[in-house]
Amino acid sequence: MNYVSVVVSGILISGCWCSVSNEVKFPTWFKFGAATSAYQIEGGWNASDKGVSIWDTNVHIRPDTMVNAATGDVACDSYHLWRRDIEMAEELGLDVYRFSISWTRLLPNGFANYISEDGKRYYNNLIDGLLEKGIEPVVTLYHADLPQILQDLGGWANPLIADWFSDYARIAFTLFGDRVKTWLTLNEAFIICDCGYEKCQTPLINDTLVGKRLCNKNTLIAHAKAWRMYDEEFKPKYNGKVSITSLFLWFEPATPEDKEVTDLLIDYWESRYTYPIYSKEGGWPPVLEKFLADKGKHDDSASILPFTAEEIQFIRGTYDFYALNHYTTRMIRKAQPGEKIGPWPLYGSELLGVQFLSDPTWEHAGADWFAIYPEGLRKQLHWLNQTYGVNEIMITENGYLDLDKHLDDWARLKYLKDHMEQVQLAISDGLNVTGYISWALMDNLEWFGGYSASFGLYSVDFSDPNRTRTPRQSARYYSRVTRTRSLHHTLDGLNYLK
Ligand code: BGC
User: Fold this and answer.
1) Domain carrying residue 423
2) Which of 37, 44, 250, 478 could tie 143 with a disulfide, CB 3.0–4.6 Å?
3) Domain-embedded: residue 360
4) Residue with CA at minimum distance from ligand 1 atom 12
5) Is residue 9 part of a domain?
6) Of 447, 448, 451, which is best to mutate to test ligand 1, by the most ligand atoms within 8 angstroms of its C-beta?
């Protein structure tokens, strides 16, 4: 591999919280970033001609679903404070900033027949402002905020969504494709469908039998349609890359006997959304497909919609790199017959008969479900490489949940460092991991959790009309990492940050 390692031996810097001997540096081509998404930060929910999204609807008609009846009406007010966001990205020394476009800010009606001038201006300003500072925009087209009007027409369960989405994507590629070279179609289709139709993400529909399966298939087709359109119409002139982000917890078998069921669970969580795209043959992951077909003979909850041969070919190979969102790991054990599933039942627990556990040696972030096992990331990167042989992997999210919003966030700093260390190891193992994007640039609306949870490198004062942003220790640390391209250094004299 073309991995450049620089060994700095025998240097000990005073005030350093870790040794720098035998230090490995990230290669010069490696990209550091931070991420956000439109609904979580922008606010300006009805500014100018912006249309209503399913998240606008949810917070307004179902405030009881939100911690402290939080809304994204103002959020971090990035609609007005985008210049400060760029400044923060610069302070952090980022190579890339990942943000998402609000579909209803750009296309207020959801459809491509009317483009908002205000929406165009907003994203042009953001993109140009980043590029002026030498920061590359990585743009997600869809991050949870479907136009309400499209939801009313069936949303992701309506096969026409593939046309609606690719029409929207074409507008975005046309308007911004000369400057945006890395695109992500959908953020976490697993969450859009498995959560959206099992009442843990908007549109909070409970329809696991039909809606969830239509959504699973339609997200794949919508992604593929947008990818193919870019490939044919835009790639020749702009030479950019398009992919889809996948949320993937790493699953570790509790004992060697649990390996088979763990693999099946990986199929259920990961491959149901990725095998059709990344595998050589396309279609559903065969072992899971067979398992569901057998089980489906006497259990309605087990099935997936079939693909036609054309659909398999249409979806297969629609990627330019693999975009991975990784946060945590679970230990998996096969449940005993009749055993109660718990304490953390997650998707697939009942269907596949598994228990999700944590290893007693693992620490936890702000919530007990958030087990910390950095080695899981390296194992997952290897799994992706072995399973799909993907040419390039970019980590598009990794971050630490804290319920205590202090600035001295040493635990987050350690989490980031330990995970980036695993990325370094994976690169030195020979894997082509080209970037690490931390979630999040700043605290934001953590969906139903509102503003009670923090993921930010910067804290945001949500009681202040100016939404003042303040760097945490993790931001200070990260700004050194990006500049030194190394994980081991002193925290003294960090004066890049305001
Ligand atoms: C989502 C973000 C979310 C983060 C933390 C990710 O999977 O893409 O929108 O804020 O998890 O929960």
Assistant:
1) 21-497
2) 37
3) yes
4) 446
5) no
6) 447
What ligand 1 atom has the least distance to the C-alpha of 444? 10
pLDDT tens-digit series, residues 269-295: 999 999 999 999 999 999 999 999 998
Work out the average pLDDT over 51-74: 98
**Residue 491: its pLDDT value, please?**
61
- Residue 461 resides in a domain: yes
Q: Which of 23, 42, 90, 188 is catalytic?
A: 188
| CA distances for 133 relative to 94, 129, 439, angstroms | 10, 7, 21
Instruction: Give burial (CB, 10 Å; 0-12/13-18/19+) of 114.
Output: exposed
Of residues 42, 90, 289, 397, which has the active-site annotation? 397
Our answer to whether residue 188 is catalytic in this structure is: yes
Of ligand 1's listed atoms, the one at least distance from the Cα of 399 is 5
How many domains is the chain partitioned into structurally? Answer: 1
Nearest CA among 43, 59, 391 for reference residue 203 = 59
Nearest to 173 by CA among 113, 240, 116: 240
Are 26 and 19 in contact by the 8 Å Cβ rule? The answer is no
Please write the tens of the pLDDT for every residue from 186-221.
999 999 999 999 888 999 999 988 999 999 999 999
Confidence of residue 482 (pLDDT cuts 50, 70, 90): very high
Residue nearest to atom 8 of ligand 1 (CA): 187
Of 184, 397, 398, 442, best ligand 1 pocket probe by most atoms within 8 Å of the beta carbon:
397
CATH of the domain at 91: 3.20.20.80
Q: Which of 57, 40, 43, 51 has its CA nearest to residue 99?
A: 40
Ligand 1 center to residue 447 CA distance, Å? 8
Task: Give yes or no for a contact between 39 and 66, defined as CB atoms under 8 angstroms apart.
Answer: no
In the reported structure, the alpha carbon of residue 452 is separated from the centroid of ligand 1 by a whole-number distance in angstroms of 14
Task: State pLDDT tens for residues 453-466.
Answer: 999 999 999 999 99
Share of the chain above pLDDT 90, in %: 84
Tell me, yes or no, if 198 is annotated catalytic. Answer: no
